[in-house]
Specification:
The chain is mainly α. 80% of the residues lie in helices and 0% in strands. The chain contains 14 helices and no strands. The chain has helices spanning 6-23, 28-39, 43-64, 72-89, 96-128, 133-157, 162-183, 191-194, 205-231, 240-265, 267-287, 291-318, 325-353, 357-380. α2 packs across α9 and α6 packs antiparallel against α10. The radius of gyration is 19 Å and the shape is globular. The model is unreliable at 189-199 and 383-387 (pLDDT under 50).
């Protein structure tokens, strides 16, 4: 299939998000328990390493809002390369501050991958009227999570340690990145196309951006510490190898479902519904400390968080004409701020209380508030409404 055909472009985007986010960002979750046990990391330190990745993500999102004077595809390739190298580098580190620095750099690269791959694929697919592309594109994160979960399970079954986890997943991310670069073509390139156009909003953008930031707070506690929560309870050990895989599989199949809901009921109504369902899953991880409760939490987390990510970016795309790069970057900045706050606060609450219960309930509340703000944004975007 030629590189510039629509399906090939979307598959390239899927591979990019699988490498840069599904593995580059989220593989930390299943690897974390082994790191904590071997290196003696506290919950607070584990949370700070996670937050460093999200601070880097914020910096990368801010950088992605700037004009890009060269090919966006070239910059995307560079971001993918950095993401893969930082994943590999974690295999050789033991120092807390070095790991924090490397995860910061990896987060910077991940933001570039998300903003650039999303912008390129959505912009070109919209111009062609290809409605399948967003579902294929955003499934990439779930595919990457599921692949990394299987790789970590293989390493564990082989009796190897967490360093091998980083090495193996880093090598697989390189293969995915190569596929992405081969399939994503920037298309007709002009200087005007490379400059982020001044956004012309149709309304409701302020509550939408805030809702996206609260979503960052709401999902990240469970997304970061779910496997650690299970590892801490011997009664749940039997489901540990499968829980993160369930998150990934649910995420991969959820995006087309939520986009279909958006077509029928509206993007922001779907966003709000997904936030409420995710809040139930996050709450279940704290309130129902059984195998069934944790599997429910994993399924609902996976079944919503990439759908919400996609719906938020699609809603932003609907509210600006021209190159969406700048508005996508603003949304990602808000999301990043939420992610920075979540793991650090949750880790310290864990050190104070001995569990993630309080943090999980707070995260569920943030998701409910995000749903309400999304509905407000929907009302403000109607003709005649004022922001």
């Amino acid at each position: 299939m030629a590189r510039n055909q629509p399906n090939s472009l979307a598959v390239g985007g899927l591979a990019a998000l699988a490498a840069g986010l599904g593995i580059g960002r989220f593989v930390y979750t299943p690897i974390l328990p082994g790191m904590m046990a071997d290196l003696g990391l506290t919950g607070g330190q584990a949370g700070l390493i996670a937050s460093a990745n999200f601070v880097g993500y914020l910096a990368g999102a801010l950088a992605a809002a700037l004009p890009i004077p060269v090919s966006r595809r070239l910059v995307l390739a560079a971001c993918l390369g950095v993401s893969c190298l930082t994943t590999l580098a974690m295999a050789g580190l033991s120092d807390f501050w070095m790991m924090t620095a490397v995860r910061f750099i990896g987060g910077f690269a991940s933001a570039g991958v998300l903003v650039l791959a999303t912008g390129l694929v959505l912009e070109r697919s919209a111009a062609r009227g290809d409605k399948r592309a967003p579902g294929i594109l955003f499934a990439g994160v779930g595919v990457g999570i599921a692949m990394s979960a299987l790789l970590v399970l293989i390493v564990e079954e082989a009796g190897l340690d967490w360093r091998t986890d980083w090495l193996l997943t880093g090598l697989v991310s390189i293969l995915l990145a190569g596929m992405a670069v081969a399939k994503i073509d920037e298309g007709p390139s002009t200087q005007a196309a490379r400059q982020p156009a001044k956004a012309r909003f149709t309304g409701g953008h302020a509550p939408l951006v805030l809702a996206y930031g609260l979503f960052g707070v709401g999902y990240v506690v469970t997304a970061t510490f779910l496997v650690a929560i299970i590892r801490a309870d011997p009664a749940l050990w039997a489901i540990e190898p499968y829980t993160w895989f369930l998150v990934g599989v649910s995420a991969a199949f959820s995006v087309p479902l939520w986009l279909a809901v958006a077509v029928r009921h509206g993007t922001l109504v779907a966003f709000a519904a997904a936030c409420v369902i995710e809040a139930i899953g996050v709450g279940a991880s704290a309130a129902v400390a059984t195998e069934a409760g944790m599997l429910l939490a994993a399924a609902l987390l996976g079944g919503t968080f990439m759908g919400i990510t996609a719906l938020g970016l699609v809603a932003a795309r609907e509210r600006v004409s021209g190159n969406p790069q700048r508005l996508l970057a603003v949304m990602t900045v808000a999301f990043s701020i939420g992610q920075i706050v979540g793991p650090s606060v949750a880790g310290h609450l864990h050190d104070l209380t001995g569990n993630f219960t309080l943090a999980s309930y707070g995260a569920a509340g943030a998701l409910v508030l995000a749903a309400l703000l999304a509905l407000l944004a929907q009302g403000l975007s109607r003709p005649g409404a004022k922001v």
